[in-house]
Amino acid sequence: MKSFLSFFLVSIFFIYGEKQDKLTPFSYSLTDYSISGSIEGHIILTPKNNNVRFGGGLYGRPAKTSSSPTSDSVLVILTGNSSTNESETELEYLNQINQQFQPSILPLKQGQTVRIQNSDPVYHNVFSLTSPHKFDVGRRPKGEHFDVTFEKPGVVDVFCDIHSNMYAMIYVLPSNIISITKIQSN
């Protein structure tokens, strides 16, 4: 990488130096080259416990709760200069496990499809009122799924009509996205 940049800078000075008497502006595009690298570091997240109520609480009895940390809440998104119309063909999943959406944050590329899967032993009714991505999968028992394709960029809020504590966000990103990475807190 350093040798490429040195060559590139030397080439610019050499070419521009020859044309100094004419003061011709010079520009150079890096579109013919690919440069790779890495980003390294640490992000420390303090997990927040989400208490989920599982019935109970009737006649003075305490409600049963379950907690799980939120560790999927950081996205790193790299964009490019040109947009491509190629949509991702890989199917993404939004699952319902222990009366929570897994993952709670789901990044997608424009045109990608999400399979909304119920893995809980109870019914769920997943829906979104976010325009233009409104949908309602209806009541689905364990093992059933419903596919939704997201054609326009934006943030989609997802809820369960039966369990008001369930919430997820789907980020539909434009087609010029090069890479999406979710960072785990551990």
Average pLDDT level: 69
Give the total of domains.
2
- Give the terminus-to-terminus CA distance: 31 Å
The CATH superfamily name of the largest domain is Cupredoxins -  blue copper proteins
CATH architectural arrangement of the largest domain: Sandwich
Give the strand order of the largest sheet, numbering strands 1, 2, ... along the chain: 6-12-11-8-9
Question: How many strands appear in the DSSP assignment?
Answer: 13
User: Judging from the principal axes of the Cα atoms, what is the shape?
Assistant: elongated
β-strand amount: 35-45%
User: Structural class of the secondary elements?
Assistant: mainly beta
- CATH class identity of the largest domain: Mainly Beta
User: What is the count of DSSP helices, taking H or I runs of 4+ residues?
Assistant: 1
Succession of helices and strands: HEEEEEEEEEEEEE
The largest sheet is: 5 strands, mixed
Radius of gyration: 24 Å
Low-confidence stretches: 1-30, 54-70
CATH topology tier name of the largest domain: Immunoglobulin-like
**Helix residue percentage:** under 10%
